[in-house]
Design brief:
Elements lengths: L2 H17 L6 H26 L2 H25 L3 E2 L2 E2 L3 H21 L3 H45 L7 H5 L22 H8 L4 H9 L15 H10 L6
Antiparallel strand pairs: 1-2
Helix pairs in contact: 1-2, 1-3, 1-5, 2-3, 3-4, 3-5
Length: about 240
């Protein structure tokens, strides 16, 4: 009885497959996957104990999983809408409808009879297909990413024609040589931008930014991050080039 677990895994894998290029970590995806699969497994065990049939329990749990993950999307689509003068885009209306659909799934599982086996097979195939499509997308991205990384490394190696200085020569400065200035590179990791702090959290960061400007710092007031992860941002800034590959 795999389709309840596969339907639960699909939304997580879908989001990961469509955001992997943004630097979403594998560990974060696996944690989310473990939570949804674990919760679905517990719900399935409860269903088996109540319905005394693993196929019926699977059908009901799959319906609950689909209803759960689709609610937010449906609400966003119909929010504020009215049909025949009735405001259907409200939580009260949608929650009532979702309860009725869950009850319908329960009734259908009881009345399915001999067709329950065929329905279970169809659901397993559909759920497996949804999961495999996203796993293939992740695999395809990883293959392309590895190939691009190797190509960029080879290009970098081929393009370097100089030689690194001898550390001992760097340490031995002539007497009276000018001491190079100290350089401090401050990285405000995960620090919100001026606009984001104001519009999202209602926080005015202007006094802090003005204090920086009064000390001679340049503040880019409309700046945005080039990359969503610290490792990517540092690789770009410390190498002084974009990670175009």
């Amino acid at each position: 009885m795999l389709h309840p677990l596969l339907f639960a895994a699909f939304p997580v894998l879908y989001l990961y497959a469509h955001n992997i290029q943004e630097g979403v970590s594998l560990g974060g995806m696996l944690r989310s996957l473990g939570i949804v699969i674990g919760a679905t497994a517990i719900l399935f065990v409860i269903g088996v104990l109540l319905l005394r049939d693993h196929r019926r329990a699977g059908l009901v749990v799959s319906a609950l999983v689909v209803l759960f993950f689709s609610y937010g999307h449906v609400y966003s689509a119909v929010q504020g809408r009215r049909i025949g003068g009735i405001a259907v885009g409200r939580h009260a209306v949608l929650i009532t409808l979702w309860i009725l659909l869950a009850a319908a799934a329960l009734v259908a599982s009881v009345r399915a009879g001999k067709r329950l086996y065929e329905l279970t097979t169809v659901l397993n195939v559909v759920a497996a297909g949804l999961v495999l499509i996203n796993l293939f997308s992740v695999f395809q991205y990883q293959v392309r990413s590895r190939a691009a990384e190797r190509a960029a490394f080879q290009e970098s190696e081929a393009g370097f024609e100089g030689s690194l200085p001898d550390p001992d020569e760097v340490r031995r400065r002539p007497a009276g040589a000018r001491t190079p200035p100290d350089i401090y590179y401050f990285i405000f990791d995960t620090y919100g931008g001026e606009v984001g702090l104001r519009e999202t959290f209602g926080f005015d960061n202007t006094p802090f930014l003005r204090s920086l400007e009064s000390r001679g710092f340049y503040v880019a007031h409309r700046s945005t991050a080039n990359y969503p992860r610290t490792s990517l941002s540092l690789a770009s800034s410390l190498n002084m080039e974009y990670l175009d590959f």
